[in-house]
């Protein structure tokens, strides 16, 4: 199975809209083109929203320099596109800043990470760096949840209600995966590829709208406890993945 990877890109209100690439070279070009097209659509929508407009499909198509048909290929409904772009405007800057701040703080331990890596074992500094980044990401998302969670519920409902297509690509969650991969980047060279991809998938299950909704609706947790539960789950996944890597070496 081809592993899906996301890279961080973009600027302005849509900064961080991610580009999908794959590990299989022949598919990489097509995947990148799909990601560029989707990014252009969301970016154009975000720019129009930031200007105070409530754009329709025609306005978005013109701003993104794509056809109406192309927009509907990526977003079956206008509501889904507007929600996606709005959520990006609400969360992107804060989450990006939180991960960056955690990265700067953790960079002070880079020399220790290099020394530990030379021993052939996953470095404590690298794991601590990744944990700090993931924790910062989760807390930034938790802080934004008061305003964004209702929109997140709506986006999930729209996605679930849309009939699935046959294309083997994610239907949403691109920002989340980009954030997770960026936060875990210190471990990319410490873990086998399959373990890294599994860790990304595992953290995707405990971070984001779905996790917050479960913790609120099924567990009745308040916002602070929801954030702590997600952060604990993510740390546990990182720890167990590093232990598995050590057993392999």
From TrEMBL:
Pfam family, one: TetR_N
Domain of life: Bacteria
UniProt entry keywords in alphabetical sequence: DNA-binding, Transcription, Transcription regulation
Keyword DNA-binding belongs to the record: yes
HTH tetR-type domain span: 35-93
DNA-binding region range list: 56-75
SUPFAM superfamilies with a match to the protein in the record: Homeodomain-like
GO function term, MF aspect, one: DNA-binding transcription factor activity
Name this polypeptide is given: Helix-turn-helix transcriptional regulator
Species of provenance: Kribbella jiaozuonensis
């Amino acid at each position: 199975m081809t592993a899906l990877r996301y890279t961080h890109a973009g600027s302005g209100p849509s900064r961080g809209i991610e580009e999908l690439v794959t590990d299989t070279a022949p598919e990489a070009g097509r995947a990148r083109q799909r990601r560029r097209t989707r990014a252009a659509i969301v970016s154009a929508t975000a720019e129009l929203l930031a200007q105070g407009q409530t754009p329709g499909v025609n306005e978005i198509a013109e701003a993104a320099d794509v056809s109406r048909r192309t927009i509907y290929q990526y977003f079956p409904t206008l509501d889904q596109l507007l929600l996606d772009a709005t959520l990006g405007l609400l969360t992107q800057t804060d989450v990006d800043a939180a991960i960056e701040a955690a990265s700067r703080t953790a960079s002070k331990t880079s020399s220790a990470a290099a020394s530990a890596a030379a021993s052939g074992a996953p470095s404590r500094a690298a794991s601590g760096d990744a944990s700090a980044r993931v924790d910062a990401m989760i807390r930034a998302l938790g802080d934004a949840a008061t305003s964004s969670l209702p929109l997140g519920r709506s986006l999930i409902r729209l996605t679930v209600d849309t009939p699935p297509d046959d294309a083997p690509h994610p239907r949403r969650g691109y920002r989340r995966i980009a954030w997770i991969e960026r936060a875990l980047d210190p471990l990319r060279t410490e873990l086998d590829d399959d373990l890294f991809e599994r860790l990304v998938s595992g953290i995707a299950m405990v971070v984001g709208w779905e996790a917050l909704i479960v913790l609120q609706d099924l567990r009745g947790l308040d916002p602070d406890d929801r954030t702590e539960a997600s952060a604990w789950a993510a740390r546990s996944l990182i720890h167990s993945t590093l232990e598995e890597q050590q057993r392999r070496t």
